Fold:
Amino acid sequence: MSWKNLYPYVRMLTNICAIFFYTMFATNFILRISSGDNSIGFWTIFSFVSLTAVTVYNHFDVKNEVEILNGTKIELSSAPGGRLFQIFGFAASKKSFEAIYVPIIYDMREEYFEALSENRIWKARWVRIRGTWSFVVAIGLDRAFAFVSFFIKAWKSVN
Amino acid sequence: MFNSDPRRPSAKELIILDMLAGKKEMYGLEMVQASGGRLARGTIYVTLMRMDEKGYVTSRQLTEENVSGLPKRVFSITGLGQRALAAARSAQAVFGGAEVMG
Structure:
């Protein structure tokens, strides 16, 4: 039995802990109401929302993990950068898109797949983070240059 | 340091021109890896696009199939880029590195 097989049980334990804390805070809330304190404190709401979210997340996470381990589900993940294109692609001109955005994603994917082929999972994760950061920096610079050049052209046309 | 003449290549542009002068064609990641930390992944393509607009470099997309599913863009130096590099090297020899490299 591999240690990876314990993952679902560890997550199930976190799930149980989340339910325990949720019950604890809910009890606290009921006691406050019953003692005549009608105000709902920030931490009561925060704990209620966050712990409910954790519980729901854990449930689906464990379900997913169990399905993968049982072989009833195959996990597919998209290549890095696809979502960046979807989010920021609309903000770029065609020229910037082809000359800046596509090459950055190309480089990120090349390094990412190279790391994966060498079975270097942490390097692949780092490449993904660094690539996303480079993409954001490039967008910032590109938009800043576009703004400055537009401003200069407008200034020249006025004067 | 601020580059007062927009036609004069900046320090980063000179690094790129210097690398491209020694090779036929290079792509962005190759330049970043060859620069030894002097060029960053986030800024190289913005710099290359500006150099393309100035006429120092030219680029083309390779149509060969690759693992990323995206076209690869390679850059090469133009005649104007070679002249700008030669002028910068001459100026560097006369006035010193700090003045020319900006």
Remarks:
- Helices of chain B lie at 11-22, 28-35, 41-54, 79-95, 97-101.
- The first strand of chain B starts at residue 26 and ends at 27.
- The longest helix of chain B spans residues 79-95.
